[in-house]
Amino acid sequence: MLSYIKKYLPFLILSSKQQLIYRSNILITSLNNIAICITMCFLWTHALDGTSGTGYTKSSIILYFVLTTLGSLLFSINPVLKLSGAIRGGNLAQDMLKPIDYFHKGLFSHIGTQLHWIIITIILALAISPQAIGIILFMACTFFMFYALMMLISLLAFYLEAMWPLQPMLYGIFMLLGGLSFPLDILPPKLYHIVQYNPFAIAGYRFSKMLINAPSLKEILFWASLSMCYGLIMMIIFRSGFRSLYRLHEGVGA
Fold it and tell me: Which positions ≥6 away from 197 have C-beta within 8 Å?
């Protein structure tokens, strides 16, 4: 375990240093998400009249959207572009010659990129939740799951000329299925009980609910285990697909 950390820790440190150098990227991303949050809060506070049939008050809906915005910043869709950049830039072949796992290298780099949001979320959990340790565990499992999901989607880079058009589409899916545009529990009960288990909902809606409510240890362990199961399955599929597609990519001389 120690040798594993020593092997991949430099990628985390390098990514975190790059984030400090290019601080404007953090600022622009934050302002973009804050603008969306303000828009959602404005729309929903005007749609609600005190306590409505949705079960949300104006103050609770604002808190919900603030926390889902934090979730969208923490669980970033940016890894979906990394593989495409490596292929187009000719760096993938070089990475494959190194004695490292491409998935784990990317994971540690992504942790470094998101380190500021990870620290903010941990501090927030410790400050407001009596189940902070459990929520941090849930956050870690969900972070891994969402990264694995983005990496799995990134395999499309072997087929598509450019991946950047997928980014706004993925964010739109995140807003719809993840509860970033409305709380999922206002959906009809039968639909809600299905939608709440998708990975986007866990990273958005469930993340905010964990911080707002006081979840039991059993509930935390259920959602953390589900996230980890999703993540492991997607990692296995990614590795299998990555090896096959890379051999095909290499075979045609790309």
Answer: 226
